[in-house]
Amino acid sequence: xxxxxxxxxxxxxxxxxxxxxxxxxxxxxxxxxxxxxxxxxxxxxxxxxxxxxxxxxxxxxxxxxxxxxxxxxxxxxxxxxxxxxxxxxxxxxxxxxxxxxxxxxxxxxxxxxxxxxxxxxxxxxxxxxxxxxxxxxxxx
Length: 140
Fold this sequence. Notes:
3-stranded antiparallel sheet, two-stranded antiparallel sheet, 5 strands, 37% helix
């Protein structure tokens, strides 16, 4: 979902993107735990990438927004794409507004290490292909 607001008297507008993912078969929203469990190792991996690659340390210190670094676990901040896991923050959350909407992608190859087999297959293997693969190897 993309939002753009232009407040009265503002010099420029603000944009915000939120990502929501649903299981197409059951219509239920995917949350962080349903995809990655409660694996602190993966959380630390993502946290370190956010801090080292996209967060602005001076900005975070100045506006005291370090608690927002962990928002990547919240619905709206992450999405599964063809490339992997997209983590995206809002404007002014962890960087100055001039940085736009900071984001990073965790590649599928890395996700395979941290996701359950079932979650990985739901996200990255089209279900029509999954039945074909299982049938081809005699498991369907």
